[in-house]
User: Fold these one by one.
Assistant:
Number 1:
Amino acid sequence: MTEQDYDKLLDASIADLPKEVAPPRDLWAGIDHAIEMRASDKKISAGNFRQIAAVLALVIGGSWFYYADTGFNSTSSNEVNLTMLAADIDQGFKLQKAEILAVYEGQPALTLTWKDQLRELEVARSSVWNELKKNPNNTYMIQILLEVQQQQLDLIKNVHTTLNHDI
Amino acid sequence: MTLESLEGLEYDDSSLVERSVARDYDAFKLLYERHVARVYTICLRYCGNEDEASDITQEVFIQVWAKLENFKGESTFSTWLYRVTTNISISYIRKRSPWWARSIEWSKAGNEEQMRMNETYFEHSLDKKISDLPKQARLVFILFAIEGYRHAEIAKILKISSGTSKAQYHRARQLLKEKLKND
């Protein structure tokens, strides 16, 4: 065959390419759900700011209450115990988060912005954790740390399990 | 008006778009049903992976629902929709992790299922050959030879010069002809 023949063959093959291929699975359920989620996501997004602001307010408020309660006095043995507890919580969370992320790795998520949301929550968690490192006796902070960590784990699970369930 | 009553009537795209802009969800579902196969095919050609193509297709319709009021009616709805599909697909390809990272993910996930799924689509031999082209040559070839964009438009979409688009198209053709010769 000549070069021109191959050109013709290529053009004929292009013309033969299917114009439409049906998707291998129903995609509407996921779209339907995501539209619904994103509608509430807008509220969440605005709420996210409020959530983070609330966490920061709690961090600041918690610190104030802590100092007001203790009058800056703390026993060193309590401090050591709570430091260890906070470190355990932090370590445990990191492991749990890594495990959950590994489970869902490569799986489709309900929104494309979930990683941004996760990062925002991680920023909030870091603020709490930094505050705890400075004041390990502050039990308010431990409560808030647990809450923000749980929000992260819930987010990872929800954006994956809801979509996989629906499709 | 319910989806059942809409289905019984012959609505053209523009009426369905009008209804969808007015937040008629049933009308939007009919638009989806009418165009999903074409949108999916465009996505599949760009990304070469059925799972990703499904995800991008979903993202296209989610974004279209959110931004339907941006459609000004300067072209037909299908032209606008396929352009949106092209933009989202290319943006997705640009953002996705490099090939080596994806290889690790695939091998971790035990990607036999994915490979098998892709084989079902890539039975068409030219599509298989196109999917094996280098990324830029592949995108330019699909845009020009299959989707019918002009080089000037491709240059804007891919943020390259018109000359580069022509060169990449020529390269793609040469590579495809070589593959045809080896068949």
Number 2:
Amino acid sequence: MTEEHAEAHEHTNYIKIWAILTFMLVLSILGPMIGIKWVTLIAAFGIAVVKAAMVGAYFMHLNIEKRYVWYMLFTALLFLGLFFFGVSPDVMKAEGSNWVNHNNMPVATEEVGHGDGHSE
Amino acid sequence: MSFQAPLATSRSVTGLPTGRLAIWWVVVSEIVIFGGLIACYVMFRLRHPEWGEYASHTSTPAGALNTFVLLTSSLSIVLAHQAAAAGNLVKSFRYIWCTIGGGGIFLLVKSYEWTTEISHGYTLFANNFWSFYYTATGLHGLHVIAGMVIMAIISIGVRKGEHLPRVEYIGIYWHFVDIVWLFLFPLFYIAK
């Protein structure tokens, strides 16, 4: 146990952080009930990011962790970003400047329980 | 012949204890595993708005209950770490078992959900939405089980006052499992 972490335990009110996280959970459930798309997106995903950041910062002690750990985490997230932007055109588009993906054309009808999610 | 701890367990090139460095490497590799899966789901979800209809068959109250249970179990494992740091081994042991209990409740709720969904015909191969759903929540569930088993093993050492830093290490892992669920919840239960 490092001194920084021991000190963090003394100064952090974990129950208060848990209460804030629970309150945000309630907001993320109530937000989408309003039925406005952007409110749903912010309530669901914006709050999820904030909750994850709070768990990381206070429960995992990232707020006092060595920079080395931050470099590791950012490297993983960077590769994840590269993966997303490298693969997404293939998945999300059916055609581009000089290519057509016949497997990714929109589906006319699809039945729950039998559909494939995308055409074959 | 007496046991001598390997050099790697006592040196600290990065300024981090080796055990903590190792668990952060585990977390980093898990980010790529779960992140890759979630990124693929997001791509397909944006491409197929009709998946919102499939998502309407997942139970938001059950997902919300599980989110609450995991957040609470994250609290109990950080309190176990705090108690271990303060030398209160009994309290730390109890908090660890509260966390294991939280994992158990999570799995029970998940089992109920899966049973209901499968009985309604929404199986792994029903369509790509349900394939993603069962793969992501199943992989996450396996991580919950692994965490529970490791915590049970660590609790034996805690009772004897041995290997106390392991409480912090399993805590970091458990919080990560919690964070993954914080993203799975809106993706599969809220975005309908």
